[in-house]
Amino acid sequence: MGTTGTGRVSDQRIDKVVPLTTPALLHHELPLDDALTAAVLDGRRAVGRVLDRSDDRLMVVVGPCSVHDPAAALEYAHRLAPVARRLSGDLLVVMRVYFEKPRSTVGWKGLINDPGLDGSGDVNTGLRTARALLLEVVRAGLPVGCEFLDPIMPQYIADTVAWGAIGARTVESQVHRQLASGLSMPVGMKNRPDGSIATAVDAIRAAGVPHVFPGIDVSGTPAILHTRGNADGHLVLRGARNAPNYHAEAVAGALELLRAAGLPERLVIDASHDNSGKDHRRQPIVADAVAEQLAAGQRGIVGVMLESFLVPGRQDLEPTRELVYGQSITDACVGWDETEAVLERLARAVAARRETVAGERVAG
């Protein structure tokens, strides 16, 4: 017969194909038991209550830019958990546990894609490592926040996640809007890197309605997925190039866009990325500016995001140099001591907002 036409034209730039473990097999190896399932569901419900403001606390999504060292991330979780419990009257603390790093050009793409930090691309090991860490973070008593980049990865890890995000580079993608429409947790949509908030508002609307699209089921079998739509979509302001959008005027403008679109007036402010000029030392400044708005009675702000790790700053991934334990290899992060101080200031601002709102009701 000879080589078929398909054999001559397909996979011309594929070096090799490695079998991928199925979601079902990974869930069997690393199960979410009844206690952890209850914790995840409790976390999702708590996030939902903050979003609809039946709970007047502030959600704070805090943790490393992108996890590269599971041991350091777990140590961070064990430090964060008691602080989260202590401040739980005012804050709903969600640990940021990101495994996929979106890139404008090239670079390390995250723990799932490259767990060895060496370009070997052992995705099966990456998935097992990621899921094992997620289970331990939930076991420590923390809800998990995660950005979803590859559309099939949620089948492997989304059952552990209480809050999800669609990033600034993918918020305009139809694939990611469809994905968000079927995710089981609230999902935040970030404004585009160029500052377009309308694009994120469109994404919230698109994810809020049913979709039909191809994907995989839990067995790893190709399937057509029919979604119900996600009513818990919300806006995340992360700034734009040379144009932060965390200040009161920008917040008011974003809330007006949501109102005009017929969407709930709620948003999360990312203190990192372009809101801090990608300078981790400015994150506390942004958080303090948000705290002032909270204390003045701004109820449209329902959450804050912080990039934080054990050691402040960042480091380059170099094969010849040992990495500093607990320091980011992607975006620069606030260190632990400053993180705890920022959380305490945000908690005080929420308490002040509560008093301000109560006073307005009495005066009204």
From TrEMBL:
<dbReference type="InterPro" id="IPR006218">
    <property type="entry name" value="DAHP1/KDSA"/>
</dbReference>
<dbReference type="InterPro" id="IPR006219">
    <property type="entry name" value="DAHP_synth_1"/>
</dbReference>
<feature type="domain" description="DAHP synthetase I/KDSA">
    <location>
        <begin position="52"/>
        <end position="343"/>
    </location>
</feature>
<keyword id="KW-0808">Transferase</keyword>
<dbReference type="GO" id="GO:0003849">
    <property type="term" value="F:3-deoxy-7-phosphoheptulonate synthase activity"/>
</dbReference>
<comment type="similarity">
    <text>Belongs to the class-I DAHP synthase family.</text>
</comment>
<dbReference type="GO" id="GO:0009423">
    <property type="term" value="P:chorismate biosynthetic process"/>
</dbReference>
<comment type="function">
    <text>Stereospecific condensation of phosphoenolpyruvate (PEP) and D-erythrose-4-phosphate (E4P) giving rise to 3-deoxy-D-arabino-heptulosonate-7-phosphate (DAHP).</text>
</comment>
<dbReference type="GO" id="GO:0008652">
    <property type="term" value="P:amino acid biosynthetic process"/>
</dbReference>
<dbReference type="GO" id="GO:0005737">
    <property type="term" value="C:cytoplasm"/>
</dbReference>
<comment type="pathway">
    <text>Metabolic intermediate biosynthesis; chorismate biosynthesis; chorismate from D-erythrose 4-phosphate and phosphoenolpyruvate: step 1/7.</text>
</comment>
<dbReference type="Pfam" id="PF00793">
    <property type="entry name" value="DAHP_synth_1"/>
</dbReference>
<protein>
    <recommendedName>
        <fullName>Phospho-2-dehydro-3-deoxyheptonate aldolase</fullName>
        <ecNumber>2.5.1.54</ecNumber>
    </recommendedName>
</protein>
<dbReference type="InterPro" id="IPR013785">
    <property type="entry name" value="Aldolase_TIM"/>
</dbReference>
<keyword id="KW-0057">Aromatic amino acid biosynthesis</keyword>
<dbReference type="GO" id="GO:0009073">
    <property type="term" value="P:aromatic amino acid family biosynthetic process"/>
</dbReference>
<keyword id="KW-0028">Amino-acid biosynthesis</keyword>
